[in-house]
Every structure is written in structure tokens, then in C-alpha cells.
Amino acid sequence: MSTSKILLKFAKKGINLSPEAYNRVINAENPIDFASSLIVKLKSDKFTSKDLVSVSGEMVDEITGTKKEKTDNIKVTPDETPLTELEDPKKEVSPIEELKKDSDKQEKHVNEEILKASETVEDTKIKFKRNEKKTNVKYDFKILQDTSKKSYTSGELENLIAYFKSRYEKLANILQKRPELRNFTKIADIDDSQENLTLILMVREIRTSKNGHKIVEFEDDTGSISILFTNKNEELFADAEKLVKDEVVGVIANKSNDSNFAFGQQIIYPGVLRIPEKEMDFGIVFLSDVHIGSLTFLEDAFQRFIDWINCEYGSEDQRRVAEDVKYLIIGGDIVDGIGVYPNQEKELAIKDITQQYNEAAKFLGNIRSDIKIIIAPGNHDASRVAEPQPAVPQEYAKALYELDNVEFISNPGVVSLDGINVLIYHGRSFDDLVMAIKEFSHERNDLLMEELLKKRHLAPIYGERTPLASELEDYLVIEDIPDVFHTGHVHINTYRKFKGIHLINSGTFQTQTEFQKIYNIEPTPAEVPVLHKGKYKHFKFIE
């Protein structure tokens, strides 16, 4: 990278390098990544984006942890001193950090599927004139579910009643297809002579008895009943431990002498049937949580990704995969947004939402025109916060709407890509599941996706961290089983196959945030999943 380009990169962020500091950067093993990491550390610490920061060689040494006796000719590599893990010895330890214990840190999970599929895209760039004309490629593209223009809620109590009634009826229709639930009974119709009960119920409240048993208060549209699940039946109790408020399940129970109380024998989740594998002769790329506009956005890695998808970067085999890419899905948080969390402005490189989308359009506008790009919103985008979220509105993202190969869809949304049905959901409800079910974590979001498929609902818990709009119809019920379930939000790549369904979380293009540091969440930035002719591939665009 030339001197002028290195200096321009820092100048754009209001940073002036001394000759000694420049030598530290240019002599690093990977100057581009080192420069990006140094900028992130500088602009997210004691300086703001409004400050003009003068950086000496000593400052670089201090930030990177390099010993002072090292000369300017010695290379400083990001791998030796990762900037995201450095701590300033002068920095005060926060009360939250003091409470952290080694025992709080979970053992890092290794996703074997990703490990086998992973390869770093080679630093081999070729130049040729990519197709900038309007494409004549034929797409078999259909939007199967988009709630962007289907919002009819007024927020009144009647809407809320209609919403839960819709949820119950949709899931009851799925459950009723199970042989053991075909002849289920409504609570109001329970006869005094009945001993065995077959019910389809919604969870109202969950509590634990003094002896450690689960007592769940259920309801349907005719009444309520409390059911005890004993901890002496380990399998049944494990199922009861995964119950969450407001979900709909089937229950087999034995009635007690009290007509409003029963002893649970079996919990039946709506679940999914195994689906056959479909043939595909093309590729689909999955992105989310790009966070353009953030100081921690990995601009250089994202540019390498764009060069790869344009068949201009990587090894011959890696470029051959790129040649087969027909669709690119972005599952939310393409930009970092404005005012999403307190003091966010301190972590923004672009502080205007329209300018953030303009910057996104500059990147996506450089992707070859024969790739159809599908964009859904996330909680950082300029859509309403409550789910289902309508598509990103044109008034904020006009530059993106002007791109001929871009399609916008709601969150959640379902698309058919040449016969491959993809359920796109940003994944905000993961936060609620992790809080409600003790065995779950953000790191294993593949298990969270599996659980949502078993529950056949994308956000079953109402009234917690995930804001849900009380529409007249519940659009977050998973009525049809997809071929691919794509999520994001947690910034951690995962992949697994469940009942023939590809479960893909597409990670992020943002380095670790301060919030993630507090909760020991380690992102997997600049790692891109690709479904290539039915096979999972995983490309890394950063060392």
C-alpha cells in the first residue's frame, strides 16, 4: 500500500501520523489490517471523531503494547498484540469488569462444520472489467412473505387479543396434524369423568415449586389450567425447562381431583419434519451486521469481500465459487444506525443515517450487476423497532433503491431463490431465549435457531427485550418449513444442518464492541458463509 494511501486512510478519520508512527504501520505484517485496528483503538478510546489526533511512534508502541526498546525497523504484527484485547494500564477498571470472574467465561465452542468448510481467501487480486451493464440473467426470484405493507395495528387491546388468537390458531393447526393431538380437548370441555387429557395450550406463567418441580399455568381461548411437571422424570422435566411464556404446545396430562390442576406426562412441540435436499446449480452468499458508519466497521475486509464476489480476488478455485454466485442476502444491520443505544455517537464514523445508507450504496453499487441483492432490516436500521419490521424505507435509503439489482424485504421475510426457500430473520429474539433458558448462549446460536424451528415461532416471548407489534395476525409463526434459515444479530458465525434445513448465522463485518466485551461475546468478523451448489463454504476475509 502506498504512502499516500496509508496517510489518506488516517486523514479521513482525523488522525495525523508522525514519520515514526508511519514506519510502525508500514512495517507491520499486514499494514492495511494494522491501520484499521489502530484507527479503531484510537477513535474508540479517549478521543472522539471530532478530535484531530496526532500520533507519535511512542503512542503506537503504547497502544500496541510494543516494548520501547524495539527499533522502527522491527515489524509489529497485529497477531502478536491483538488491538481488540489490549488494555491501557492507566485506564480505570469499571465496576462491571471487577465483577468478572474466570469462572464466568464459557469454554469456547468450536463449530466443526465451519472448521471443515473454512478457508481464508488468498491475497491474490486480478484486474478485469467487470460487468457494469444491466444484466440479462434470468432469475426465478419470488417474495413468499413480506409484511412491509400489512401493518394494521392501532395498539388497542382488541388488537392484542386478535394477535394472540392468531398465534394460537396457526400453531394449533400445525399441532393438530400430530396423530396424538388430533382429538384434543379445549379446557372448558374437560369432563369430570376424564382422567387423561390431550390439550393444545399457550403458556401463561412458569414457576418452580419448593421441591423443584415446574408448575406451568396454561390457557386456551376457553379457560386456564395449571400443570405440574415433576423433576423425577428427567426427559419430561428437560422439555419443561425449555418452555417459555406465550408459546403454544401440545400437552398430554393426567387430571387431578382439582379440575383446574393436572400432572403432565408429555410435552409436544410443533416441530419440523425432515425435508428432502433440493438440487441447486448456483451460489447464495449470506451477510448481516455489516454496520457501515461505525468506527469499528472493517472497511478493508469488506472491500476484499466485494473484490472476491466480483471474481477479482482470491485463488482460482475461490474465484470460481464467486462466478456461480447468483444471490446475495443481507439479513439486517447493513448500517450502524443513529441513537440505537446510549452514547452511540461516540462510536460512529458517519453520524447521519442517510449518509450511512449512501455509503452502503457505494459499496453495494460496486458489486457486479448480475447478482441480485436482497436486503432485510435489523434493529440498527431505519425501520420501526417492533417486529415484524417493514423494509428499510426509501426516504432514508434512496441511493440503495436506485440500484437495479437490489430488492427490499421485511424482517422476517421469506424468498424463493430458483426454488430454494430462504427464511430471513435478523435474530433479535435470541436475546430473550438466552435469558429465559439457562442452557442457551449467544455463541451457540445454531441451537437457538433449532429451538425456534421446534417452537415454529421466531419470537415466542412477548413483552421482553424483543419488541413485538400486536398485529391482527401473528406473522412470526413459521408456517412453512424453509430450505435455509438465515439469521444474524449476535455477530457470531454458526452453521449446522437440522432436519435437512441449513441453519446459517452470517456473523458480522464489525470488530468487538464495548457491549460485547462486558458480556464476553467474541464476534467472528469478516467471515462469509456461502451455499454453493448445495454445499456449505465459509470464506474468511481477515487473518
Key features of this structure:
20 strands, 25% helix, elongated, 15 helices, alpha/beta, single chain, 543 residues, 7-stranded mixed β-sheet, 6-stranded mixed β-sheet
List the helices and strands and how they pair.
Layout: H1 3-11, E1 15-17, H2 19-26, H3 31-43, E2 53-55, H4 57-64, H5 95-99, H6 112-117, E3 118-120, E4 141-146, H7 157-175, E5 196-208, E6 214-220, E7 223-229, H8 234-241, E8 248-255, E9 261-268, E10 283-287, H9 299-309, H10 316-323, E11 325-331, H11 353-364, E12 372-376, H12 398-401, E13 406-408, E14 413-417, E15 420-424, H13 430-436, H14 445-455, E16 484-487, E17 494-498, E18 501-505, H15 514-518, E19 527-532, E20 535-540
Parallel strand pairs: 1-2, 3-20, 7-9, 10-11, 11-12, 12-13, 15-16, 16-18
Antiparallel strand pairs: 4-14, 5-6, 5-8, 6-7, 8-9, 10-19, 14-15, 17-18, 19-20
Task: Describe the protein's architecture and organization.
The chain has 543 residues and is an alpha/beta fold. The longest helix has 19 residues. The strands form 4 sheets. It has a 7-stranded mixed β-sheet with strand order 3-20-19-10-11-12-13. A 6-stranded mixed β-sheet has the order 4-14-15-16-18-17, with helices on one face. Strand 8 and strand 9 form a beta hairpin.
